[in-house]
Amino acid sequence: MTSAGTLLCEVRGVVEAPVERVAALLLRVRPGPVGRDNCLPFAAHGGTLTGGPDRFVLAAPGHAMTVEVGPDLLAAQGGWWYRGEYRLAPDPSGTLLVHQVRNVAERLRWGVPLANGFFRGLGPRTRDGFAVLLDRVGAELGCQVRLLGGR
């Protein structure tokens, strides 16, 4: 699975656990309610997943998203323009976790920043949400995590 669209923001963190352990937690996706043990990165959204095994629909309060899962990727795409991707990669300390927000609008792509107020606060909101997820992963796996820089 390749990344699509225009990168709007990216945040990174390190989980001091092997990729296999992090993947077993973050890439665990199956039909049913979203929560701590199912599609963890989107647990705060709530909702229910249907489909599978690699492509799901997440029906959450007020919206729906397509969720894709692969060996090192969890991605959600919904609405007019949004795609959020979580990627795992080996790191000398354990696992590098990268979260990207992308504009995947197929029409009126130029209008996305206008419609969204030029994404005021998108970077800080994304970083704050990622930091919460990173802390949750560290708590679940019983290991240290570090928030790194982003763009």
Keywords for this entry:
alpha+beta, 151 residues, nine-stranded antiparallel sheet, 22% helix
Task: Describe the main β-sheet briefly.
Answer: 9 strands, antiparallel
Number of strands: 9
Helix content: 10-25%
The side-by-side strand order for the widest beta sheet comes to 2-3-4-5-6-7-8-1-9
**CA-to-CA gap between the ends?**
22 Å
Strand content: 35-45%
Structural class estimated from helices and strands: alpha+beta
Question: How confident overall, as mean pLDDT?
Answer: 88
Oligomer: single chain
As residue ranges, the low-confidence spans are none
Describe this structure as you would to a colleague.
The protein is an alpha+beta fold and 151 residues long. Helix content is 22%, strand content 40%. The chain has a 9-stranded antiparallel β-sheet with strand order 2-3-4-5-6-7-8-1-9. The radius of gyration is 15 Å and the shape is globular. The mean pLDDT is 88.
Brief sketch in words of this structure:
With 151 residues, the protein is α+β, with helices and mostly antiparallel strands. It is 22% helix and 40% strand.
SSE map:
Elements: E1 6-15, H1 19-26, E2 32-33, E3 48-51, E4 55-60, E5 63-69, E6 73-78, E7 82-91, E8 94-103, H2 111-115, H3 122-141, E9 145-150
Antiparallel strand pairs: 1-8, 1-9, 2-3, 3-4, 4-5, 5-6, 6-7, 7-8
